[in-house]
Fold this protein.
Amino acid sequence: MPGRTSAMAADHDAAASFDGLRPTLFRTAYRMLGSVADAEDVVQDAFIRWMAADRSAIHEPQAFLRRVVMRLCLDQLKSARRRREVYPGPWLPEPVVEAQDDDIDDVTLPLMMALERLSPLERAAFILHDVFGIGFDEIARTIGRDPAACRQLASRARANVRTPRPRFDLPRERGLQIAAAFFAASRRGDMSALQSMLAADVSVYADGGGKKSSPRKPIVGLVDALKLHEALARLFARAMSRIVRFAFINGLPGFVTVEGEGTLQTTALRIEDGTITGIYVVRNPDKLRHVAGETVH
């Protein structure tokens, strides 16, 4: 049956071409949604639509699939934003633990948190233009607005975020050395060493999702951050953490641990001028399922 064989070959080629674009589509969806699971669902939905489409009429598959993914993400954000309004405690994106040979992502965790302040359309315009370098004519076709409106959306987003695209300016190894020193000092309760590492305006964000213990508000300032770690050190003394690995997490140096009560946890550190200005801890087990599968053996 030559017709059936030809169709199967065409489907195989279409699936192969999609797989080549899958990493870029995932990065787009993840930066829009801040959720690994939701991003994977969106990409899979896009794959189903790609396989069902009249591909002979699609001249630019990457642009077509980017539009599909972005529109699916915009639909998802409507319900996601409502969920985050009632989220217990600080909300952090699901952590992505980068492999040793990965390029360090310049869309870091602090920038992803800043993107939460944007409307869905502002977020889409900013990510497509400022992160991926897509022109406003293509953005207009993607989100269904004219180019001038897309330019305004991106401009408003930039003003709202009020931060340049962050670039990690420490060598990878130096960042991981600081992460290792912070881990050691925090676990043995060395307040003097911690004080020397932390900036005066350091902020600590911990996302337990109401399922694991964590501060319900960000901890801001050196004094309060040291008080928090002094209290934590007493807990660590009774049940020591087990380090799983040091790695870059959402573009920031950090580490994955299993805490004394068996809780998987990621910690990412924002480092500026050699000092730690931000500490981002994810303890919510719903956000760590993919990390457990990738890193814990």
The chain has a mean pLDDT of 89. The first helix runs from residue 2 to 33.
